[in-house]
From TrEMBL:
GO molecular function, one term: 2,3-dihydroxybenzoate-serine ligase activity
Protein name per UniProt: HxxPF-repeated domain-containing protein
Gene Ontology terms describing biological process: amino acid activation for nonribosomal peptide biosynthetic process; enterobactin biosynthetic process; lipid biosynthetic process
Ranges of residues in domain Condensation: 42-482
Any one Gene Ontology cellular component term annotated for this protein: cytosol
Length: 488
């Protein structure tokens, strides 16, 4: 059995049906016509997703909420010159890495430069006592990760090298969301690693030429929205969000501080291997995914916290449906408002079934810019998604991502927190192939919530996860709450 066949065999019926639909979509897109290269190469319009980021930045130009920081701990001898050359080579391939943003009349545009300077500054901590280096490294990495970008001055990516020893260093990488999504990080990492290996070992690295550039996609997108999105996807969202009520406020500790600084807070957690296995087993029995099961519990917690039965949660989705867009760096993300009726008398099994229907419908019509939905609902794009929901859910499946390797170096990914947030409350789950458990993070607006409140929230969620999977036919209202903590 081939590796592909083995992976297909492991898919649940729901996952296989989704794959079949996406393959059918891909086949249908063949008749739409290729994305053409634009005539003017030095600039392009913004995509719908970029426009939302642009509007936020016009209101809050110094807000680093759209910074995407990450870091690698690199063990081994790093060739800094080869690394810098490798980044230059990737920038040469991708116009979006050489773009800045400005107004052309009253319209924002992306301006493509033939070349932008790029350096990797170094902070050397080797002279510090060994017991001080790690703390100082985290201080420097977090400070760099939260330094805002100026959209008019590129490039909109930065790197910082922090030396801890002769054969150990931390490489901090920061992208602006105007040019980044999760797939972009994988593309960037693989291409940098390929060029780096060629430069340090004296070989060659020749990735296939890019069929188009991000600016070509941006110029093509309005035609696609009119021909495809408004005809095929918008009717579903019009029905799904008909008469949707304004987003219910979460019970925050300091509502008077809304909009103060939007400071980010994090509460990390880890599901036990036993609980993870039970959740996977239940998902398999219900012919659905772990993603849906975890989302159902999150929705019930929001129902318990707010009393709302009409629960809308935001989740992100890729708009990379076409073969031309798969190798491109750029922002190909949309947000999907997942609306489900949640009542306390529902059993967990019933709630999962309802959540599955919500998720299936959304994924059938996921290829729609959120701006189109906001326009349909007559919600100003500058208002943001807070008019639809106050909480988000994200699950990142690392199980099928190719591991990144760099010549002569051992890589350890490090997680850097963002300084500010754009949504009140979100939960992210992370699933890795070599782990027997799922881990995650609750990220929250620390101006609105105290850490103790988020801790109680996690305790409720943990009890719900255990109780729901243990007694899936019991009404959710009967599941336990933490001692001394009634429904708020």
């Amino acid at each position: 059995m081939t590796d592909l066949s083995a992976r297909l065999e492991r898919l649940t019926p729901a996952q296989r049906a989704l794959l079949d639909r996406r393959l059918a979509d891909r086949q249908a897109m063949v008749g739409v016509g290729a994305i053409p290269r634009r005539a003017r190469r030095d600039r392009a319009r913004l995509t719908d997703a970029q426009e939302r980021v642009w509007l936020h930045r016009q209101r809050l130009p110094d807000d680093p909420a759209h910074n995407v920081p990450s870091a690698w701990r690199l063990r081994g001898r790093l060739d800094l010159d080869a690394l810098t050359r490798a980044v230059y080579a990737v920038m040469a391939r991708h116009e979006v890495l050489r773009s800045t943003y400005e107004l052309d009349g009253d319209q924002p545009v992306q301006v493509v430069h033939p070349h932008l300077p790029f350096t990797i500054p170094v902070i050397d901590l080797r002279d510090l006592p060994a017991d001080q280096r790690e703390e100082r490294m985290w201080q420097e990495a977090r400070a760099e990760g939260n330094r805002p970008f100026d959209l008019g001055v590129g490039p909109l990516l930065r790197m910082l090298l922090i030396r801890l020893a002769d054969d150990e260093q931390v490489l901090v990488r920061i992208f602006d969301h105007m040019i980044w999504d999760r797939a972009s990080m994988g593309i960037f990492g693989q291409e940098v690693a390929g060029f780096y290996r060629a430069y340090v070992e004296g070989g060659t690295y020749d990735p296939p030429p890019l069929p188009i550039q991000y600016g070509d996609y941006a110029e093509w997108q309005p035609q696609w929205i009119e021909r495809e999105v408004r005809v095929r996807h918008l009717p579903y969202w019009r029905r799904q969000l008909a008469d949707v009520p304004p987003a219910r406020e979460l019970p925050t500790d300091h509502p008077e501080r809304r909009g103060a600084t939007n400071r980010s807070g994090q509460r990390y957690f880890r599901l036990s291997p036993e609980l993870t296995e039970e959740l996977r087993r239940f998902a398999h029995e219900e012919r659905t995914t772990l993603n849906v099961v975890l989302l159902a519990v999150w929705k019930f917690l929001l129902h318990r916290l707010t009393g709302a039965e009409d629960v809308v949660v935001g989740t992100n989705s890729s708009t990379r449906r076409r073969a031309e867009t798969e190798p491109l760096m750029g922002l190909f993300l949309t947000m999907l408002p997942l609306r489900t009726t949640v009542r306390s008398e529902l059993t967990f099994r019933e709630l999962v079934a309802a959540t599955r229907r919500t998720m299936t419908g959304a994924l059938d019509h996921h290829d729609i810019p959120i701006g189109v939905i906001l326009d349909e609902l007559n919600v100003g794009r500058g208002v943001g998604l807070g008019a639809l929901y106050r909480a988000a859910f994200i699950m990142v499946d690392f199980r099928h991502e190719a591991p990144l390797t760099m010549a002569g170096l051992e890589l350890e990914p490090l997680m850097l927190e963002k300084q500010t947030v754009t949504i009140d409350l979100s939960i992210g789950y992370f699933d890795e192939a070599d782990q027997d458990h799922v881990y995650g993070m609750i990220e929250y607006n620390a101006d609105l919530f105290d850490a103790a409140t988020i801790e109680r929230m996690w305790q409720q969620l943990d009890l719900l996860l255990h109780g729901a999977v243990a007694t899936p036919d019991r009404p959710m209202a009967e599941l336990p709450t933490p001692p001394g903590d009634g429904d708020r």
